[in-house]
């Protein structure tokens, strides 16, 4: 490891360790596990110097993706679920509620980054099923303003999710 690689790793840690720990703590609710996940994500960055060379924004996205995947892998493990192995595989695959829950937490965390106006219209339109006309009346603004807030709010939400390592599916 050369000095520039070490300097990049230190800068990566200094800039991203604390926010990454808060993010993982929201996902896990477990201080010790969150610290272990952040340590593992930073260790993987150290082992993968190409990540460091991509710049701070790409490195941050990579770290959040790695941390999220570590949490998902931990939750899926037999140890986490306290499962006993089966000799036969179940006939019907079940959806993974852990990934769905983590996605929900990730979106909720990203929503906190939006302005109150954007957050309000997104939550009321997409989660509460309110129409543009209903929102315009409720918020006492023109329907065009509601549509504009939805457009720019979704754009800001997409950026907030990308900062957390979520890419388009």
UniProtKB/TrEMBL annotation:
Single GO molecular function: DNA binding
Keyword Transcription on entry: yes
InterPro entries, per the entry: RNA_pol_sigma-70-like, RNA_pol_sigma-70_dom, RNA_pol_sigma70_ECF_CS, RNA_pol_sigma70_r2, RNA_pol_sigma70_r4, RNA_pol_sigma_r2, RNA_pol_sigma_r3/r4-like, WH-like_DNA-bd_sf
Regions that span the bilayer: none
Family: Belongs to the sigma-70 factor family. ECF subfamily.
NCBIfam families: PRK09645.1, sigma70-ECF
Name used for this protein in its record: RNA polymerase sigma factor
Protein species of origin: Kibdelosporangium phytohabitans
């Amino acid at each position: 490891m050369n000095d520039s690689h070490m300097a990049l790793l230190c800068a990566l840690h200094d800039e991203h360790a604390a926010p990454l720990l808060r993010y993982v703590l929201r996902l896990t609710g477990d201080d010790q596990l969150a610290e272990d996940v952040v340590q593992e994500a930073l260790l993987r960055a150290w082992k993968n110097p190409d990540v460091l060379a991509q710049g701070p924004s790409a490195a941050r996205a990579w770290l959040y993706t790695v941390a999220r995947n570590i949490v998902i892998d931990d939750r899926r493990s037999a140890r986490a679920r306290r499962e006993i192995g089966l000799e036969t595989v179940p006939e019907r695959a079940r959806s993974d509620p852990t990934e769905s829950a983590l996605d929900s937490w990730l979106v909720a965390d990203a929503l906190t980054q939006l302005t109150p106006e954007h957050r309000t219209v997104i939550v009321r339109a997409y989660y509460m099923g309110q129409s543009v006309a209903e929102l315009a009346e409720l918020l006492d603004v023109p329907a065009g303003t509601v549509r504009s807030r939805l457009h720019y709010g979704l754009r800001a939400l997409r950026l907030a999710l990308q900062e957390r390592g979520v890419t388009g599916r």
